[in-house]
Design a protein that fits this description.
Helix content: 10-25%
CATH topology of the largest domain: Immunoglobulin-like
CATH architecture of the largest domain: Sandwich
Mean pLDDT: 85
Low-confidence stretches: 10-28
Strand content: over 45%
Largest sheet: 10 strands, mixed
Structural class: alpha+beta
Number of strands: 10
Radius of gyration: 19 Å
CATH class of the largest domain: Mainly Beta
Length: 147
């Protein structure tokens, strides 16, 4: 084994646990907990310009122990947030049914941010507060990038 390869191996062994902890902390930063479920990775795509009129937001719910309903959302980076059903029409609430997972997708229920105040840039995060009927208020961040 060459001296360079030996140093690289020692460095990799020494840094391995540190990198694993850093990676796990980053993953946890996109999980938000209520008593009844976990919200996983709210996300959206980057926008081309400021003042984009309508931007969808997607997320996943896991370990849903009790039913709930998303009844509203707000963000300081948008004029308003709409709740949208699977048919694309605005709805008053979105059901979160009991089960292992439930997703907000492009062809299912999701949120739409209306009249952005700023351009969504790749790799950034922007605040989003969700209001649930039973679980109350949950502060999250929208991650910008590919799901």
């Amino acid at each position: 084994m060459t001296d360079h390869r030996r140093r690289t191996t020692v460095l990799a062994v020494a840094l391995g646990p540190i990198l694993a902890v850093t990676r796990d902390r980053a993953a946890l930063a996109h999980e938000y907990y209520t008593r009844s479920f976990t919200i996983i990775h709210p996300w959206s795509l980057p926008t081309a310009t400021d003042r984009t009129a309508r931007v969808p937001v997607y997320m996943k719910f896991e370990q849903i122990a009790a039913p709930d309903r998303l009844v509203g959302a707000i963000s300081r980076v948008t004029a308003s947030v709409e709740l949208v059903g699977p048919d694309g029409a605005r709805v008053d609430a979105i059901d979160i049914p009991v089960g292992p997972t439930h997703e907000f997708t492009a062809d299912g229920p999701h949120l739409v941010l209306v009249d952005l105040a700023t351009r969504f840039r790749m790799g950034r995060q922007y605040p989003l507060t969700l209001h649930f009927e039973r679980s109350g208020t949950v502060d999250t961040d929208i991650s910008i990038g590919d799901d």
